[in-house]
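**User:** Everyone, produce a chain:

**Assistant:**
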Amino acid sequence: MKNNPALKGLAIAIVAFIIAFGIYFFFLAKKNYYLVDNPTPNTYYYKINNGSEGIISAGQSVQVNLNQGKNAIKVFDRNKKLLYDSAFQVNKIRGLVNIAHQDYYINRQYYGYNLKKDSLLLELNKTVIDGKEYFGGAKHFNKLFTDDFYYNVDEDYDKVIKNIDKVESRSKIFRKQDYLNYYKEYYKF
């Protein structure tokens, strides 16, 4: 076979393409999943869509399989006494089941070049937590299910700004105490 530079170039381009996608899918791609979360000191048992019984201990998060559309859940206490039997609607590719109906906060963080964080915070609504006002307009949530966020309770915001040409935002759901800790660390007033 003759030394063909065009064929070598094509082979190198294909290998580089495969490596780039491999790096993306293994290291950079965001995984989509649903969590059952329990920030309380109690242990709960649950059945989703009449499937097998799951257990979630104090402070634990467990990945579960949910169907797009209507889902059902039965929640039991540590003595396996039925606490509630409920249904919820799944519309997006990630979500959180608030098994204990605790307080969560969905915060929106803004990224971008020339972002004036302090004036932006003052412009957004205030959230009252335990009688104290917090800037930034975090949304309070304590219902059974939500999928109105981008980052789940077990994920962090991106450390790297991907597009600095414009102002973008990403939302994250926090347990109440985690949100208060994040607020103290991120917003220094």
